[in-house]
Amino acid sequence: MKKIFVFVSILLLLCGCAGQKKEEETVPQEIDLSSLTIVTPKGAPVLAFYDQIENENYSRVTADAISALWTGDASPDILVVDLTSGIKAIANGVDYKVAAIITFGNFYLASTGNDDNETMDAGDRIVLFGNENMLPNKLWHYLYGEEYDEGLLFEADAQQAAAALASGNYSDGTAVDYVFLAQPALFAALKKNENAKLYADIQEVYKNKSGLDMIQAAVFIKNTVDSATGNAFLEKLEQSINAAIEDPSLAEAGLGVYTGDEATAQYGFNPAVVVNVFKQKNALGNNAMGLGFRKAIDIKSDIDAFLSIFGMNETSEEIYFQ
């Protein structure tokens, strides 16, 4: 009897140890993301990384510096760039996949107060920024066709377009009626012209026409990053973005690492203005900066529809990080 008792005790002990070992084996190990190198352009995408400002592996560069980072020793693990540029880079053979979309449109059309009937008509002077090959013009013609081509004028960049809205005049002094502009430049320009006002939310116009959400900045992950690490990074990014949307003071605190002129130099924007805009809602009920998070593969149809505006082909699932 004593031998049976000892045998049962040992058996229970072994079972307990085995159970403990099994439990220890199934506890997921936290993935270290601290060594991942991240590069974003200055501007709106920085808002998504408000909690990474003090991360020594996170860099912010001017938009025109991104193209040199797709290859070579300086190419980061995570690269944020506008969707179309990234898809074209992949088509040209760079070692990345598209992983997520983090901005969903911050374009608006504002009136300067110069249009007597306050209704956009053929012949009204309308300012776009960039040139005929850039997103504002491509998007404009997708939404409005050629009806207003007679009055279209182009400023070199968003800052000059903002100046046109603030003054009511094109850079050569010509009076203008409407200005196509992005946030947060719109916010600042409206403050400078008491007659100016919002005329159309381009995100809403796009949604009504296409039935889909607009897409702008995308996250690309280098192929050398394994699936577990990449997905852990995306999960953390989604959580931090959603937290800031729920509580904009988190973004405000994160961006507060730099202040004044140094902040503008670091981020490419005045953080006080951006947080103000971020707290506002657009016509679709989303934050006015268009910040959000969706895994790219989950909205492939939206991506393909957006790319079609540029005459680009439907994407293959092979270029998506999963």
Characteristics:
six-stranded mixed beta sheet; 11 helices; single chain; 322 residues; alpha/beta; 11 strands; disordered N terminus; five-stranded mixed beta sheet; 17% strand
Task: Note down, in words, how this protein is organized.
This protein is globular. β6, α3 (135-144) and β7 form a beta-alpha-beta unit. 38% of the residues lie in helices and 17% in strands. The chain is an alpha/beta fold and 322 residues long. It contains 11 helices and 11 strands. Residues 1-14 and 21-27 have low confidence and may be disordered. The strands form 2 sheets. It has a 6-stranded mixed β-sheet. A 5-stranded mixed β-sheet has the order 7-6-8-5-9.
Summarize the structure.
The chain has 322 residues and is an alpha/beta fold.
Give the tally of β-strands.
Answer: 11
Count helical runs.
11
Multimerization state: single chain
Low-confidence stretches: 1-14, 21-27
The chain-level mean pLDDT equals: 90
Using only CA atoms, what is the Rg?
Answer: 25 Å
Question: Largest beta sheet: what is the strand line-up?
Answer: 2-1-3-10-4-11
Q: Classify the secondary structure makeup into a structural class.
A: alpha/beta
The largest β sheet comes out as: 6 strands, mixed
- Along the chain, the helix and strand elements come as HEEEHEEEHEHEHEHEHHHHEH
Q: How many angstroms separate the termini? A: 59 Å
Strand proportion, as a percent range, falls in 15-25%
Fraction of helical residues: 25-40%
